Amino acid sequence: MVTKARLKRSAPELRREHILRIAQDAFMEGGFAATSMSAIAARVGGSKATLYKYFSSKEHLFQTIMETTGAVVLNKIGKIDPSRGDVRSFLEAYGSRFLEAIYAQDSLDIHRLVEAEGIHFPEIARIFFEHGHNRVCAQLAECLSQFAHQGMICCPDTLLTAQQFLGMISSDQHMRVLCGLMPAPDRGEIEAQVRHAVEILLFGLRANRKD
């Protein structure tokens, strides 16, 4: 735990990380609109002037949280080398890691925040997609392009395919979890969900398909 006394003596980067953790909790509890820089400063134990040394605005602070969260999601997925296996194995591994990442509590909390306030604050929705989902889609599309270049799949639009695959594996189950209608699936349920989606996708991506 970072105490106020230690925080005063801490390096700037440690203090910045502490502010981000406190601000994320504040946003999740109170929402974006109702959470002010003054409220965050009070939680941190400093002044607004201290916050503004690190973040130029509440929007900047929120964007940094989204950037950090997006990086965590990508790290959880990891860099799976598409050249080291077949398409099925790659998609099953990638899809399972993606679902495990979005069902993590922090990810669910942020999704709920954006769902609740994105319509009133389009900028936070833009930040959420730019630093989260869009980056994951781009990473997966790049891997699909490598498979297509090797002639292993037929995929004229890799970005659209990546978007549809991620949507297919999350299905309506993710929305049900977000709404509190069911708990997050366990590893076995995640793997079964992904295998089913991969089976459907591969049928459409067959390189030697004859229409």
What would you note in describing this structure?
This protein is mainly alpha-helical. It folds into 2 domains: 4-55, Homeodomain-like (Arc Repressor Mutant, subunit A, Orthogonal Bundle), CATH 1.10.10.60; 80-205, Tetracycline Repressor, domain 2, CATH 1.10.357.10. It contains 11 helices and no strands. Helix 2 packs across helix 3 (37-44) and helix 8 (122-149) packs across helix 9. It is elongated. The relative contact order is 0.10. The model has no long low-confidence stretch (mean pLDDT 86).
What is the topology?
Blueprint: H1 4-9, H2 12-30, H3 37-44, H4 48-54, H5 58-77, H6 87-102, H7 105-117, H8 122-149, H9 158-170, H10 173-178, H11 187-205
Q: Using the 3D structure, state the CATH architecture of the largest domain.
A: Orthogonal Bundle
Proportion of residues in β-strands = under 5%
Radius of gyration: 20 Å
N-to-C terminal Cα separation, in Å? 61 Å
Low-pLDDT segments: none
Largest sheet: none
Within the CATH hierarchy, at the fold level, what is the topology of the largest domain?
Tetracycline Repressor, domain 2
CATH-level-4 superfamily name of the largest domain: Tetracycline Repressor, domain 2
Share of residues in helices: over 70%
Secondary-structure-derived class: mainly alpha
Question: Which CATH class of the largest domain?
Answer: Mainly Alpha
Features:
211 residues, Tetracycline Repressor, domain 2, 2 domains, 11 helices, 73% helix
At a glance:
The protein has 211 residues and is mainly α. The protein has helices at residues 4-9, 12-30, 37-44, 48-54, 58-77, 87-102, 105-117, 122-149, 158-170, 173-178, 187-205. The protein folds into two domains: 4-55, Arc Repressor Mutant, subunit A (Orthogonal Bundle); 80-205, Tetracycline Repressor, domain 2 (Orthogonal Bundle), CATH 1.10.357.10.
